[in-house]
Structures are given as structure tokens and as C-alpha cells.
Design a protein that fits this description.
Length: 247
């Protein structure tokens, strides 16, 4: 064992079993065994990156925030490393009952392929069932990605993509709530979803919002413009057609 390797081991933790496949590791492997890493075609640099990343996640981040830290950090990692970390998060924490772990799983699925959207929804709804509030999140990306507005907005998009329009609207209403109605785009996003449900419903929504005394001038003006668009759509008999039928 060279001096560099010894230096590297100081301050690192090792586990007896690979965190991923649970088999007993051979000497010199840290948290994940070499054969698990090999499945992801990691280059030596990528392998080092993964090991360092896991080491800091397990030593510098408390267990409560760990998965959120990991999940949010994978956002700025690409290629094989990202595939590896997504897989790690989903397989190691799949059965965790901790609400924050469940949330991190939901957001990990949310950033993956369209085919994973139903799983993103499943874990998101599981998270919503728990009474836990979000903790103050200390890492930079985590703090941004786990802002309430950002979460509701992300899952509004996911519901909309899955043609669950009522739930998309529910999420957007939450966006407005946490923002105290300051973001006029959230109002328009709701209108856009209503247009997909039924243009008459969209018209009714905009009329109600314009009459609402509590909305800002900006919101009212944008809704007036959007109302004009919707009425034009109604006139030409516009009907939203999904690109593919819902399975
Ligand atoms: Zn392994």
C-alpha cells in the first residue's frame, strides 16, 4: 500500500459490507465495492469522484439531511457518476421510512426519465402524507432545490405531464400560497392547465381571479391578457389533445 493510499484512508470511513450489494468487501475498498462500481463503467477519475462524494456524504452530512444532500448534488453531476448516484440513492434508501429520505427519493425520480414519473408521484404523495416540515437545508443546491416553491412547482409539472391536471392545479395553488401571490406566472400556469381540461373552465378561472380583490395588479393584468387568449381559443373551438394517450 503506497503512502498516497494511506493518506487517502485517513479521515475516510470504511464499511465491512458494500453499501450497494451488501456483500463483504475486500481490503482497501471503502463504501462501495469495486464490482458494483464496475457495473457503471466508471473511469478511475469517476470512481475517485464517487468515493469522495460518498465519503463526504457519510462523514460531513448528518443522517437526517444526507439523502437530500446527495440527491440535490447529483443535479450537477453528469453521465456515469449521475447514473451511479441515482442508483445508489434509490437502492440504498428505497425502504427508508424517514420522510426526508422519501422526499429525496421522490425528487431523484423526478429528475430521471419520463418513465419514472409515476414513481416520483408515488414517493411525493407518500411524503405529503407525513406531517414533517422541511428542515433548514445547509448545502447550496439543496437549499435551492428543496425550497417549498420549487418542490410544488416541480411536482406540478410532473402531474401535468402525467395528465393529472387537478393535482397539478393543487400544487400550483400551493406555489401561490408559499409565495403569498407575488409570482404572477403561477396564476398563468394554472390557467394553462385549465385550458387543457376545458377552455370554458379556464375562462371561468380567469374571470374569478380578475375579480379577486387580493391579487396584485400584475396578476390581474396578466390574467386579463390570458383571458383574451382563452376567449379567442373558445371562439375557434380549441380542444387540447394529449400527444399520447394516458396508459
Ligand atoms: Zn457491491
Amino acid at each position: 500500500m503506497g503512502e498516497d493510499k494511506i493518506k487517502y484512508m485517513i479521515g475516510n470511513i470504511m464499511t465491512k459490507h458494500c453499501l450497494l450489494c451488501k456483500t463483504e468487501k475486500v481490503c482497501g475498498e471503502f463504501l462501495v465495492c469495486d464490482s458494483c462500481k464496475a457495473k457503471f463503467d466508471l473511469s478511475p477519475d469517476e470512481s475517485d469522484f464517487i468515493e469522495n462524494f460518498l465519503q463526504s456524504s457519510y462523514t460531513k452530512v448528518g443522517s437526517k439531511e444526507r439523502l437530500i444532500y446527495m440527491s440535490s448534488s447529483t443535479e450537477c453531476v453528469l453521465g456515469n457518476c449521475r447514473r451511479f448516484l441515482n442508483n445508489f440513492i434509490l437502492s440504498v434508501y428505497n425502504n427508508s421510512c424517514d420522510p426526508l429520505d422519501i422526499l429525496a427519493i421522490a425528487t431523484t425520480y423526478a429528475r430521471m426519465y419520463a418513465a419514472e414519473r409515476p414513481l416520483a408521484i408515488k414517493y411525493w404523495e407518500l411524503f405529503l402524507e407525513s406531517p414533517t416540515d422541511l428542515p433548514p437545508i445547509t448545502n447550496l443546491f439543496g437549499a435551492k432545490l428543496y425550497l417549498k416553491w420549487h418542490l410544488y412547482s416541480t411536482f406540478a409539472n410532473i402531474y401535468e405531464s402525467e395528465y393529472q391536471f387537478d393535482k397539478a392545479i393543487q400544487m400550483l395553488k400551493k406555489c401561490i400560497e408559499v409565495d403569498a401571490g407575488t409570482n404572477s406566472s403561477d396564476y398563468i400556469r394554472i390557467g394553462d392547465v385549465y385550458v387543457k381540461i376545458d377552455t370554458k373552465a379556464a375562462e371561468e378561472y380567469y374571470l374569478k381571479t380578475i375579480e379577486n380583490e387580493n391579487v396584485t395588479e400584475d396578476v390581474r393584468n396578466r390574467c386579463k391578457a390570458a383571458l383574451a387568449d382563452v376567449r379567442e381559443k373558445i371562439q375557434r373551438g380549441y380542444v387540447y389533445r394529449p400527444r399520447k394517450a394516458k396508459q
